[in-house]
Design a protein that fits this description.
A alpha+beta; B alpha+beta; C mainly alpha; B: alpha+beta; four-stranded mixed beta sheet; 2 helices; disordered N terminus; C: mainly alpha; Ribonucleotide Reductase, subunit A; two-stranded antiparallel sheet; 24 helices; about 5% strand; globular; binds fe (ii) ion; binds zinc ion
């Protein structure tokens, strides 16, 4: 449905990928650990290997959490933009199917947040 | 044309305060609070014990609108006979009614 | 009749009705040398059909001179009182300096909206055809300007004693969390005149404003903040007129043409949801920021929306209007809203112009009692963990920027309507690009007018595009005009706390 307007009304997205200087936006979220109040937003080069998310970004962001050290990576389940997903750690974000403003959510079995409260 | 300047009336005295109860809602008292002049009135709501405390700290005499009289008195009576809300097990609500 | 005759003849005193007729006389004229559609270009394009503008009856019939006299007299007293409080060091009578953070948020978040409202009403007052709505909007434009003015006096007063209020205007246009109220109002002001009135006069002033003003003013009064109560005097007495305008415009549109009903319903749905999302900051103020509590957010929602609003929509049902879409989601959220939002600001206090803190034990107990179904089960352990860490010098800060909702611009912190442990993710593709939303309500609003919201100025994305002064926290805060280490961070250890303890040292001594 177009906007009711007094003239032609068409705009470019303010967040189109070309505005991010070669990066694309990626949102990461550790499920059941809402002490981190929302998914985290990152501008990342699409050529970056997925491994860098797991080995650099996530520990930096979530390392403070007492359950972080207990994550068993071989058991983690992933979701990319609403679909189940198995990342290839050595492939790039683009090769893994991550596009601009993709959402990556992951679950860590057995870890349900502080006191089991999804914190 | 400009009207002759009105007589400069006194500045409202901020230490003169009044409260007028206009209604109740569950355990809450709805009231108008005035400082210094009837033009300076604001509509407020507080739980009954907080309301009493508020009137006391502001040295504000309270009147009750006739329409609110019965409900206000009920709240008043109840607050003397029933202790302040305690948390009840099983998630029961704190409503006294 | 000669001029001399005229000046000596005693003018007959006009009645109120006559004076009003003179005031509005000719305002609703039919143009002759330009087509009406050119003089009033905004009245048709929203699709609202008006057959008879004269059916708009102004119930107040306030004339300019009586408005002027009445408001001038009220304002004179008001400013005298503001001065008295300032001279008597009114800021020392508040319960605790933590309280001031609620005021900081209100004065930087909401007060600039009074000014936006002034502009919005001045604009639509020009663009309505009928004299009734034009006069009502012009009066309200002046009211809103007065509200902005009195609130700026309160800013000026508190700015002398506390951090975070030195540049409210600049902050409103730059700071990440203030983009929420700013974009709310810009959405309304960039709509047509009928949608604007539905948004602000009806949904905001009529349906939701008592949730903002009554509990907030009660909190101010109970916590000894008379500087804020003073601006309540000025704002609240005008509200009766504003609320009436809100109901009038709705009934007028609905009565004029049956075809207006679905349009109005869609606007009510949209602006209920947008207004409700805006009120999340009020939820947090009531449950977390008042040292002496008034009522919980859940109680306020029950009293002012579920009961008050329920009756209103029952009344409107004879026009074919139903309750706003997703009102039941708002009710499902009432036990979590304030906790989720306070935790969010706790996450990111390094970038706010106010302080946050962990509630004291008795305050946690109050929350447990007020939220018997959610607080202990979901939130109390979080705050207790944070407290423990903070006591060991490891206060939690979230160092990565959050994902934002494209519509309401709030971080995507809200949980699934039926699962308070899982964040609610909604998204859509528009012209090949992904857009994310905090709720079905926000997603629906986008889907109806995507071209409008793809322009959203989302603070997190703007930082990453390099438009906010730099890539580091100090650079961005500098761009926000925030003073690092003073305005931001935890209340504990803040300059506000230090000064407050100095000022009230005597109070504490005499208490012991
Ligand atoms: Fe206002
Ligand atoms: Fe208003
Ligand atoms: Zn949203």
């Amino acid at each position: 449905m177009p906007v009711a307007s007094i003239g032609p009304y068409q705009f470019e997205s303010r967040d189109k990928v070309s505005n991010f200087h070669g990066n694309q936006l990626t949102y990461l979220h550790w499920e059941e650990h809402n002490m981190y109040c929302a998914a985290l937003a990152y501008p990342l080069p699409p050529t970056m290997p997925f491994r860098a998310i797991v080995e650099n970004l996530l520990p930096e962001a979530y390392g403070y959490h007492p359950e972080w050290a207990k994550v068993k990576w071989d058991q983690v389940t992933w979701m990319l933009d609403g679909r189940p997903f198995i990342p290839n750690l050595d492939a790039s974000l683009a090769e893994n199917g991550l596009g601009h403003k993709s959402v990556v959510r992951f679950w860590t079995p057995g870890l349900h947040g502080i006191g089991g409260t999804a914190t | 044309m400009a009207e002759p300047p009105a007589e400069q009336p006194g500045v409202p005295d901020i230490n003169k305060r009044w409260v007028r109860v206009t209604g109740t809602h569950g355990d809450f008292v709805l009231f108008d609070f005035t400082i210094g002049d009837p033009d300076l009135t604001v509509e407020l709501i507080l739980p009954f014990p907080a309301f009493l405390e508020f009137c006391a700290t502001n040295h504000a005499p309270a009147t009750v609108e006739p329409a609110a009289q019965a409900a206000y008195e009920r709240l008043h009576r109840r607050s003397w006979t029933i202790p302040l809300p305690q948390r009840r097990p099983g998630g029961a609500s704190d409503r006294l009614l | 009749m000669s001029i001399a005759d005229k000046s000596t003849a005693k003018p007959r005193k006009l009645g109120l009705k006559e004076r009003y007729a003179h005031l509005t006389r000719g305002l609703g004229w039919e143009t002759t040398y330009q087509p009406m559609s050119k003089v009033f270009p905004f009245t048709d394009y929203e699709g609202i059909k008006i057959h008879d503008w004269d059916k708009w009856q102004d119930p107040f019939r306030l004339t300019m001179d009586s408005y002027w006299k009445f408001q001038a007299e009220k304002e004179r007293k008001l400013y005298a009182v503001i001065d008295s409080f300032a001279q008597n060091n009114g800021h020392l009578n508040i319960t605790d300096a933590r309280y001031v953070n609620a005021i900081k948020l209100f004065l930087t978040g909401v007060s600039p909206l009074e000014y936006s409202a002034h502009r919005g009403y001045a604009h639509v007052g020009r663009h309505f055809v009928g004299a009734g709505p034009r006069i009502a909007c012009q009066m309200q434009a002046i009211d809103e300007l007065r509200h902005a003015q009195t609130q700026i006096h309160t800013i000026s007063h508190y700015n002398k004693f506390f951090d975070g209020l030195h540049d409210a205007r600049h902050m409103h246009d730059h700071v990440w969390y203030l983009s929420v109220p700013k974009s709310f109002f810009e959405d309304a002001c960039s709509a047509g005149p009928f949608e604007f009135l539905t948004a602000i006069s009806f949904s905001f002033e009529y349906v939701l404003t008592s949730l903002l003003f009554v509990p907030f003013m009660s909190g101010a009064a109970y916590n000894g903040d008379m500087a804020t109560v003073t601006f309540g005097f000025s704002a609240q007495s005008d509200e009766a007129r504003h609320m009436t305008l809100g109901l009038e415009i709705i009934k007028f549109m609905l009565e004029q043409d049956e075809g207006n009903v679905p349009i109005v319903q869609r606007w009510i749905d949209k602006w209920f949801w947008r207004g409700y999302r805006l009120l999340t900051i009020v939820a947090m103020m009531m449950d977390y920021m008042l040292p002496k509590r008034v009522m919980s957010w859940a109680e306020a929602w029950e009293i002012y929306f579920e009961q008050g609003g329920g009756a209103l929509f029952e009344d409107l049902s004879r026009y074919g209007i139903r309750m706003p879409k997703y009102h039941e989601v708002a009710s499902k959220e009432k036990g979590r809203l304030s906790h989720e939002v306070w935790a969010t600001f706790y996450n990111y206090t390094q970038a706010t112009a106010f302080h946050t803190w962990i509630p004291e034990k008795d305050e946690l107990d109050w929350l447990s009692a007020k939220y018997p179904e959610t607080f202990d089960q979901l939130y109390r352990p979080r705050f207790e963990y944070w407290k423990e860490q903070s006591d060991q010098g490891k206060r939690f800060y979230n160092n990565v920027l959050p994902q934002l909702c494209v519509t309401c611009q709030i971080p995507m912190i809200f949980t699934e309507p039926d699962d308070p442990k899982t964040i609610c993710f909604r998204s859509t593709l528009y012209k090949g690009e992904r857009y994310h939303f905090c709720s079905d309500g926000c997603k629906d609003i986008f889907l109806y007018e995507p071209e409008k919201y793809i322009q959203s100025w989302l603070p997190v994305h703007q930082i990453y595009q390099g438009n906010c002064g730099g890539a580091t926290v100090p650079e961005v805060l500098n761009w926000y005009h925030m003073s690092l280490g003073n305005d931001n961070m935890d209340y504990q250890g803040s300059p506000d706390e230090t000064l407050w303890n100095e000022w009230t040292a005597d109070r504490h001594k005499s208490a012991i």
